[in-house]
Amino acid sequence: MAQTTRKIAKARQTAMGIEYKTTVGDKIFMVFDVLFFSLFAFICIFPFYYILINTISDNSLVNSGAITLVPQGIHFSNYISLLSVSDFINSIGVTISRTILGTALMVLASAFAGYLTTKHRMWHRSLWYRVLVITMYFNAGLIPTYLNMMGLGLTDNYLGYILPGIVAPYNIILTKTYIESIPGELQESAYIDGASTMQVFTKIILPLAKPILATIAVFGAVANWNSFQDSLIYMANSPELYTLQHRLYVYLNTSSNLASAMQSGNAVSASSLNTKVIQYTISMVTVIPIAMVYPFMQRYFEEGIMLGAVKG
To answer: What is the pTM of this model?
Structure first.
């Protein structure tokens, strides 16, 4: 198979008038390249693997530091016990709902705003686009932002998670750049056939812009899932609205209390459950769901981020 591949490659090079022979230096470079990136991938993956095997191994062995590469005494009672804590389940629900709703609204708003900024007949198009870009570099600061949120009634309010994130300047710029790469003749032909602006947007622009929309959807989903500061600042008086990351912060500061709550279900023994096990388990619960999204979006993500960056 490898010999056939080499013959095909050589035939293509000959047909194109290219004569290239692999030198010893090329082979050394390829070996070094594979080793380097394999090591880099291992460094990136191993911390997650280490935490995972410690959450499913015997807790007493984890406490003694005996788990390094291979899990021992595999069980899943740590996860079952954690899911039995009521406020943890509530924080998962808050985080999932804000991730889905916030990401969907952000993607839709970015697509529509990016589409409008490509229209030359838009009133003061250049002015509004510059105003949009300026917001990426300047902001009012924490205290004025908090006072503004409080004045709008968005503190201790679930909408405080959703409304501020709908307009995302960077994502709008990416979407605008991508839409500009779509041939204008497609839109012109639709207008000639009697299509309205909204019909062109929904039937032509949205289907063709799937790669960039998937890209900003990944950005939005990760940002919403990992959100911590807005929950910490704006939802201080509403524990029922804490996000998963905020709840993680609280748990890490009060691990002993969480241990008592987890032990109440008798799923794990009090002698084996400690702060280390709790921290590992919570970390995996917060990382795994969002990490599972990227493989399904990777193809669109790579295509969108490359094509969306062709123009400046």
So the answer is: 0.75
